[in-house]
Amino acid sequence: MRGGAGRGQDSGGGSGGPGRTVVKAAQRPQVRLPPLEPFRGGALEPDGDYDGLDFREFDFAGHDGGGARFMDCALTGCAVDETRLRHARVLDSVLTGLRGVGTDLADATLRDVELVDARLGGVQAHGAVLERVVVRGGKIDYLNLRTARLRDVVFEGCVLVEPDFGGAKLERVQFVDCVLKGADLTAATLKDVDLRDAAELVVARGVDRLAGAVISSVQLMDLAPVLAAEMGIRVEG
Q1: What contacts 96, CB < 8 A, 6 or more positions away?
Q2: Engineering a disulfide at 219: which of 85, 158, 171, 215 sits with its beta carbon 3.0 to 4.6 angstroms away?
Q3: Structure-model confidence comparison of residues 218 and 93, the more confident one
Q4: DSSP letter for each residue of 142-168
C-alpha cells in the first residue's frame, strides 16, 4: 500500500536558505504493508505470483524467479547470490538485509520499494525501471544500472562502489549522506539530480554528463581535475 509526498516540492531545503538552488524533490515511497502471511518455503518460480508474503531468512541462491511479481511483500535477511529475477516486478515492498553476489535484476521493475541495509555485489540491473525507491544504508559494489530508468529515487546513507549509470536516465534522484565512488555516467541523462548532500562524490567517467545535476562548491573543487582533463585543459603551476 503506498502514498507519497506531493510532486514538485523542493529537495533538501531548496526553497529555503539563500543561494540554495531549487531542485525538484524525489517523491519517496510510503510503504504500509498489510498483515503478511509467512512464506512456506520452496524454490522461487519463474513468473510466480507472490502477494502479501513475509520472506524471512530464506536462501534463494541460484533460484530462478524470472518474471515473478512480488506485491506487498517483506523480504528480510534473505540470500540472493546468483538469484535470477530478470523481468521481475517488485511493488509496494520492503527489502531488508538482503545479501548476495551476482543477483540478476535486468529489466526488472521496482516501484514503491524500500531497500534497507543491503550487502550486495555485482547486481545486474541494466534496463531496470526504478520509481519511488529508497536505498537506505548498506553497501552495493559494482551496481550495473546501464540504460536503466530511475525516477523519484533516493540513495541515503549507503555506499555505492563503482556504480555504472551508463546510458541511464535519472530524474529526481537524490544522494543523501551517500558515498559514491568511481561512478560511471557515460551517456547518462540527468534531470533534477541532487548530489549536494553526498558524503563523497567521485566520478570516474562521464563527468561531462553532470548537466542536469546540482553539486556543491566543494564537490566542484574535488571534480576540477576530472573536468579539466575532460575538456582538454592543461593545468600547470
Answers
A1: 74, 75, 76, 77, 114, 116, 117
A2: 215
A3: 93
A4: S-B-TT-EEEEEEEES-EEES-B-TT-
- Is residue 1 over pLDDT 60? no
Confidence (pLDDT) at 7: 37
Note whether 73 and 54 are within 8 A (CB).
yes
**Tens of pLDDT along 126-163?**
999 999 999 999 999 999 999 999 999 999 999 999 99
Please tell me whether residue 87 adopts helix, strand or coil conformation: coil
Cell numbers placing 7? 510532486
Residue showing cell 530464506:
58
Query: pLDDT by residue (tens digit) across 175-221?
Result: 999 999 999 999 999 999 999 999 999 999 999 899 889 999 888 88
Q: Distance between CA atoms of 167 and 38, rounded to whole angstroms?
A: 39
User: How far apart are the C-alpha atoms of 48 and 54, rounded to whole Å?
Assistant: 15
Q: What is the pTM of this model?
A: 0.87
- Residue in 86, 157, 153 with CA at minimum distance from that of residue 124: 86
Run of H or E residues at 203: strand 200-205
Q: How far apart are CA 136 and CA 168, in angstroms?
A: 21
- Comparing C-alpha atoms, which of 111, 85, 112 is closest to residue 98? 85
Facing residues of 235 across strands? none
Using left for φ > 0, alpha for ψ between -120 and 50, and beta otherwise, residue 212 falls in left
Distances (CA, A) of 224 to 90, 116, 180: 39, 33, 17
